[in-house]
User: Fold this.
Amino acid sequence: MTEKKGLGEVQTAAPGEELRLRPGESELDAFMPSRRMTVNLGPSHPAMHGVTRAVVELDGEIIREMKLDIGFLHRGFEKSCENVTWTQCFPYTDRLNYVSSIMNNVGFALAVEKLCKLDVPERAKYLRVITSELHRICDHLTLVGAMGMELGAMTVFLYAVEARDIIWDRLAELCGARLTSNYARVGGVARDAPEGWVEKTGKTLDRVKGYVDEIDGLLSRNRIFIDRTRGTGVVPREDAIELGFTGPCLRASGEPFDLRKAAPYLVYDRVDFDIPVGTNGDNFDRYQMRMEEMRQADRIIRQCFTQMEPGEIAVQDFRYVLPPKPLVYGTIEGLMAHFKIIMEGIQVPAGEAYSYTEAANGELGFYVVSDGGGRPYKLGLRAPGWPMLAALPFMTKDSLLSDLIPTFDSINMIGGEVEQ
Amino acid sequence: MNRLIGMVVLIGAVVAGLVGLSAAFYLAAGGLAWVFAEYLGAPPSFGAAIANVVTLMLVVMMISGSLLTVAERKWSAMMQNRIGANRIKVLGSALGGIPFLAADALKMLTKESAPPRGRTRVLYEMAPALAFAPVFALFAIIPLGPPIPLGAIVDSAAGALGSAGVALQVASPDAGLLYIFAISSLAVYGTSLAGWASNNKLALLGGVRASSQMISYEVSLGLSLVGTMLAYRTLRLEEMVTAQGLAVLGPVPALGILLQPVGFLIFFASAFAETKRAPFDLPEGESEIVGYFVEYSGMKFGLMFLAEFVEIVVLSAIITAVFLGGWHPIVVSTEWLRQTVTPLWFGAICGGAFLAKMIVLMWLQLTIRWLLPRFRFDQIQKLCWKILLPAAIANIFITAGALLLDPSMQLLAWIGVATIVIIGAITAAVGRAPAPGEHDHAAAHAVAGH
Assistant:
């Protein structure tokens, strides 16, 4: 009687067959064939951050099928990197996950340093961890705020944005930019922390903690918020592993996997922090992971502040790092090194390497191939948000249209990284 | 300390302004009543009603409705550590954002209307009016001030004419509260037709959500007020207000909120759902389905937007009249006041008290709107049919039983006091903030990883 067609068309009943009664069946009990409605959410829709298009097939308000359409933000990141020097790739990585750009910088720098077999100075490692964790807080604040806002709690969003803003102030003092902060370099970091920055950042973190507690008070015990997020968008542990989840979304499902613990890089083995692990894998657990990770990031940063000692912020090897300006203008070796790095790029030994870091949304992987020249021969990116976004149709199948919103928020899809 | 003094002065000024405003309304109503009676031979209630339509429905309701748009911006800004609308400056001062009123109106009126293709033309054009008109008409039966003799307003009115009562109320039908139910249930047509006629799937979803939500909540809305009807033995709002001035427990007046705390909560929740504002803003749900008015632009949208704010005003007015003692200035005894000041000032102070209570309730609604997230569709129905409706029915039976046992309402008042205490205790126990150690790392347990 009904024939199923592809997405974009409705399930139809032949004319005259709408109410065919079986023997002994009253009109009230008769099966009424309903038609599905295909609704196009996006690419410009308030809930679709960035520009994503979701074509949902609705039965009443229940999502029966969903098709995701990405690519509205595609910039050809991987290909663009092949045309610029290794150093010039850094600004491109900023635009991947634009809410936590320094994490991408660090991931890329680690990949190149693996090829170059460089070990960066201690202070640079600490600064990289500090800025990464600051950006982890920013990223999680964005998620929590956006989740609150799209569930109707606008006030939460503005608290989160204000907290993020004061962190950006500190990052701007460090690297000059607020949004696309560009801090890590091959062989170290761009600049040392200015005088008094550590104390100022400590105070900023106190304020951020205040905001986080306030958001916690507004949402974590809010009946409506819990009703909206508990039991929606559930991904059981096995499914989460099968679907390739990483990061907070995987941990929310109960799998205690965090690259900072599993394969510590930089100085993560020297600081003491906990990994929150959820049990249900629903939206509320994913939200809780973010809230707790912000507190843990706070702990990490404070420990780094006490452990960090003055010293070099980049390797003193002018094949990889620009020499200081007095050397460039005063000596022929300095000038040559400067010229070579700028014009030809860092000569990275031929080979391939994969760097994995725990970015805010999960494992951020950079696969780089070098032919020994100044530019990447090939570059591949494992965007942390992509597996979660790809699982969205699975997570929202047969749930209400309203559940799509917190689910879409809690995976923290960032257009820049999944569309590369 | 300076801040405290400033706030006290501000509140005093606002209350004084409201009293002055009510006095002006009485003068207008009395004046027009006298003119009609003297020169046209019409009954004085005729002229008073016409004056009240202008002053109460156009001035009070429309102005407070449009001021609420600014108030919402400013109040939400205060809640969110922002400054709020302040870019329009008149002689170098932002005037608290009030010039935005004019700017918004101008913007709405001059915007291009972009009607969608394939719309159902008549219904599409009619929907904003259908959304706005019923809400507007609701205000007609609100008793804003007590009746005072015409002679006290206009000196030259004497005799029978002088003793005719002038009240700040447009109409006083026998049906009273039933009028409210009847008219407020018409409001659903505007929203569902807007969704239906727009030829837009998202708008259609919004319209369907609106109709199911509003029709469901109408049931608990109606049943929640049955208790008050039983207690005060009347449907007329002005008689309810008068009854609320009588003492029931010693000097404590028989306020609706005291006799019917459960009815108050149910009515507030249901009426809030009828206004379609957060946390009940599913028909709009801007992050999900954008809203039933997604295809409306310009002043057509403005009318729907304004209807929402006018609903706030009307809801505050009804709650004030039914549950908060109406125009009785609770802080001082009404009888004492009646004997102390002249009738005109007595009316003016009572009217000011009504308006002040309304302002507090509007503020409460704005606060709730900016504090809470949105419900889900099935949860909103569950709340209505499984919680509010049984509670309302139980409330009716308990109220009726208590009144049967003790017609003097004292037993009912004691039950109300007990309910308030119980609700307060439950709220204090459940709403307690968790101790710091309890949840600091509740979600976290250290795991070393693989």
Observations:
- The CA atoms of residues 240 and 250 of chain A lie 6 Å apart.
- Chain A is about 45% helix and 10% strand.
- Residues 1-13 of chain A have pLDDT under 50 and may be disordered.
- The first strand of chain A starts at residue 2 and ends at 3.
